[in-house]
Specification:
With 314 residues, this protein is an alpha+beta fold. It is built from 9 helices and 7 strands; from the N terminus they run αααββαββαβββαααα. It has a 6-stranded antiparallel barrel. The relative contact order is 0.08. The mean pLDDT is 87. Pfam families: DHR-2_Lobe_A, DHR-2_Lobe_B, DHR-2_Lobe_C. InterPro entries: DOCK, DOCK_C_lobe_A, DOCK_C_lobe_C, DOCKER_dom, DOCKER_Lobe_A, DOCKER_Lobe_B, DOCKER_Lobe_C.
Length: 314
């Protein structure tokens, strides 16, 4: 704001009461949007102003709204819906400036891949003509040389919020894991001979981490990707990740309050059922049958053994 602009400082919001009014509106909107934790942050600014004015009527109202917000956090717990994220890449000269741009889209919580795919295909189909738009079905890196120059290609991949281990210490609650996030990850399985899936001993995985320009939730529902990093996991690392995941699922199922026998039954069948040939037994036979010849693999070998120790304990 430039102070010499006429009337800028005499508007009704440019006062203490105006500020309080705007903040109260913000708190209401956060509450409607289900972001109850932020309601508390907004009222932290409002309460000292009301206290200074000894406005006890408004303070009563404010505290009752805060109580409502905290009750909602306790009662809704994990049932809250924060959104589903997709990476969308645009390829083809038809897109103009959008060509080779990547975005992360935030969709309502239970959006499935076919829904967003159908919507974007329909939208760009109207722009360029239905025959000119094609959705790339896999999440492998796109080779532009193999694409038809007269078509517009859209690649859509489901992505999940990604955090480093040190970040997880601060992101304890379900809300914290879904608020103020700007890094996302998707994984692409592959084998050295080009097939996506193979035997355990030849199954590699590519983890791609995308960083967006701003953090979600944001005023827009799609944000540009400004950085991407890729990590290749070797077959034994893929096995370690899978075992950790199974152990986490078991831990969650056994510690659930109140206990859920059906859930536990499903997790147990998934993790120790003999019908699954890629289950823990197979992993142990492939990777732990003998000590690896390559000293570089000792660390992974030990890690996997520790994973099994934890798994068996669970």
């Amino acid at each position: 704001l430039s102070p010499d602009e006429d009337g800028i400082c005499s508007g009704r919001y440019f006062s203490e009461s105006g500020l309080v009014e705007l903040l109260e509106q913000a708190a209401e909107l956060f509450s409607t949007g289900g972001l109850y934790e932020t309601v508390n942050e907004v009222y932290k600014i409002v309460i000292p102003i009301l206290e200074a004015h000894r406005d006890f009527r408004k303070l009563t109202l404010t505290h009752s709204k805060l109580q409502k917000a905290f009750d909602s956090i306790i009662n809704k717990g994990q049932k809250r819906m924060f959104g589903t994220y997709f990476r969308v890449g645009f390829y083809g000269s038809k897109f103009g400036d959008l060509d080779e741009q990547e975005f992360v889209y935030k969709e309502p919580a239970i959006t499935k891949l076919p829904e967003i795919s159908h919507r974007l295909e329909g939208f760009y189909g109207q722009c360029f003509g239905e025959d000119a738009v094609e959705v790339i079905k896999d999440s492998a890196p796109v080779d532009k040389r193999k694409l038809d120059p007269n078509k517009a290609y859209i690649q859509i991949t489901f992505v999940e919020p990604y955090f480093d281990e040190y970040e997880m210490k601060d992101r304890v609650t379900y809300f914290e894991k879904n608020f103020n996030i700007c890094r996302f990850m998707y994984t692409t399985p592959f084998t050295m001979d080009g097939r996506p899936r193979g035997e355990l001993s030849e199954q590699y995985k590519r983890n791609t981490i995308l960083t967006t320009m701003h953090a979600f939730p944001y005023i827009k529902t799609r944000i540009n990707v400004i950085q991407r990093e890729e990590f290749i996991l070797t077959p034994i690392e893929v096995a370690i990740e899978d075992m950790r995941k199974k152990t986490q699922e078991l831990t969650a199922a056994t510690n659930q309050e109140p206990p859920d026998a059906k859930m536990l039954q499903m997790v147990l069948q998934g993790s120790v059922g003999a019908t699954v040939n890629q289950g823990p037994l197979e992993v142990a036979q492939v990777f732990l049958a003998e000590i690896p010849a390559d000293p570089k693999l000792y660390r992974h070998h030990n890690k996997l053994r520790l994973c099994f120790k934890e798994f068996i304990m669970r």
